[in-house]
Amino acid sequence: MKIFARALLILLVLAVLLAAGWTWFSLSWSYAEGERAGYVQKLSKKGWLCKTWEGEIAMVTMPGAIPEKFEFTVRDELVVQQINALAGKRVVLHYQQHKFIPTTCFGETEYFVSGIREVREAPQPAGPLAPPVPQQGQLSEPR
User: Which of 73, 77, 143 is nearest to 111 (CA)?
Assistant: First the structure.
């Protein structure tokens, strides 16, 4: 009986170590990284036991098109403050994708935002340039 209890304890310790190792690996190794541009629609701290910052960005490809939503998680409080400071402006979020995280205690999505910057667009011209209007006594086209 003592051998059975010891074997069970060893298996339990190995299972906990394996789960902890997998969690560490999935959070420290990123599957992919990239950037998404758009307008932050929502950022809130939520969760029953583990509170995490969860957000949503609306990505508009062209005026009048239906925006695509990109849901993300933020783990850094400094980035949360930067997102809140840029509310209402077009921004670019830099993210890392972490697949197969065993629990939602670290975030509800697999996309973790690590940086943000504001998009500063160049002003667009008002419209096509019109040809100069001839004044009285001038020909409309040179000969």
Answer: 73
Residue 34 identity? G
| Whether 89 contacts 40, CB under 8 Å | no
- Distances in Å between the alpha carbon of 132 and those of 85, 135, 139, 142? 45, 9, 12, 12
- Report pTM: 0.72
Q: Which CATH architecture has domain 31-118?
A: Beta Barrel (2.40)
Express each pLDDT in 70-84 by its tens digit: 999 999 999 999 999
Q: Which residues sit opposite 71 in a β-bridge?
A: 56
Q: For the chain, which residues make up each domain, given as ranges?
A: 31-118
User: Could you read off the pLDDT of 10-64 as tens digits, one per residue?
Assistant: 899 999 999 888 888 888 888 999 999 999 999 999 988 889 999 999 998 777 8
Structure tokens at 64: 């009048």
Residues 1 and 14: their CA atoms lie apart, in Å, by 20
The candidate with the shortest Cα–Cα distance to 61, out of 39, 43, 42, is 39
